From TrEMBL:
Molecular function via GO: N-carbamoylputrescine amidase activity
Organism taxonomic ancestry: Bacteria, Pseudomonadati, Deferribacterota, Deferribacteres, Deferribacterales
Protein name (record): Putative amidohydrolase
SUPFAM superfamilies in the cross-refs: Carbon-nitrogen hydrolase
Signal peptide range: none
PANTHER family assigned: BETA-UREIDOPROPIONASE, NITRILASE C965.09-RELATED
Length: 278
């Protein structure tokens, strides 16, 4: 599986301009023979939208979304946008599209509302986490903060995910000379998830500055043994193409059968017992 990590800098609130940049990157990835291109969280809109959320929201019938479906006949695509439901709820969402169809749409479940984040003020929270089948094996899609909650990872692992894709908008925190806090946290987390869940992992983080906040990039990919296969430069709009061996999951699960030996009944029993106490 040849994957292009599209570490881009979106223009805040400019759906049309961002879409055009996506299409140019997709065309380049197709010309390189890629099977999948992954964009960051909210790649079509930018992050600090505030009240612009309602102006840039779309559903599958939107002309821009339809253009992504057209391009997906040539390559699988993961892109981030604001999804507007029939109930007129607005979600921080990412879709996996391929062969002219939406294979899966994930609505961000864990919306950060601390320090510089206030997603819960503008977005509705998603209510499910699901693995889904693709031509490249069973995949899971999580958006940024979702990754730092054990329920997300456990559900995907127990649902048979072999590949986890993570679009992100992680802002820069910490001092580069003393160790960059955000990149250290993500690299540690990504390596752990890949190695312990024995999954291939693709993490794509954006770059650029919005409202004085910088996003650090550093997109990367790991195989199912927790070995880093590729990494993009920090703070630079760029793209990285990586070959991910789907069979690495099989080899990793033979060598380290963590998934086989997981005792999910312990979790069920705990939740049942705790529920009974309440």
């Amino acid at each position: 599986m040849k994957v292009h990590l599209a570490q881009m800098k979106p223009v805040l609130g400019n759906l049309e301009k961002n879409a055009q940049k996506h299409f140019e990157i997709i065309e380049q990835a197709v010309s390189e023979g890629c099977d999948l291109v992954v964009f960051p969280e909210l790649s079509l809109t930018g992050y600090y939208l505030l009240d612009l959320v309602y102006d840039v929201a779309m559903d599958e019938n939107h002309p821009v979304y339809q253009k992504f479906l057209d391009y997906s006949n040539e390559i699988a695509i993961v892109f981030g946008y604001v999804y507007e439901s029939r109930e007129k709820l607005f979600y921080n969402a990412a879709s996996f599209v391929h062969r002219g169809k939406t294979v899966h749409t994930h609505k961000k479940v864990y919306l950060p509302d601390y320090t510089l984040f206030e997603e819960g003020r503008y977005f509705a929270a998603g209510s499910s986490i699901q693995a889904f089948d693709t031509e490249f094996g069973r995949c899971g899609l999580l958006i940024c903060e979702d990754v730092f909650h054990l329920s997300s990872l456990y559900i995907l692992s127990q649902s048979g995910a072999q590949n986890i894709i993570i679009p992100s908008n992680s802002p820069a925190r910490g001092n580069l000379e003393l160790g960059h806090d955000a990149s250290n946290a993500w690299q540690t987390s990504n390596r752990y998830i890949a190695g312990v869940l024995t999954v291939n992992l693709v993490f794509v983080n954006r770059v650029g500055v919005e409202d004085g906040v910088s996003f650090w990039g550093g997109s990367e990919a790991y195989d199912a043994r927790g070995r880093r296969l590729a990494a993009a430069d920090m703070f630079k709009e760029t793209g990285v193409t990586v070959d991910i061996d789907i069979d690495s999951v099989r080899r990793a699960r033979i060598e380290t059968p963590f998934l086989r030996d997981e005792k999910s009944f312990l979790v069920r029993n705990f939740l049942n017992e705790e529920g009974g106490r309440k």
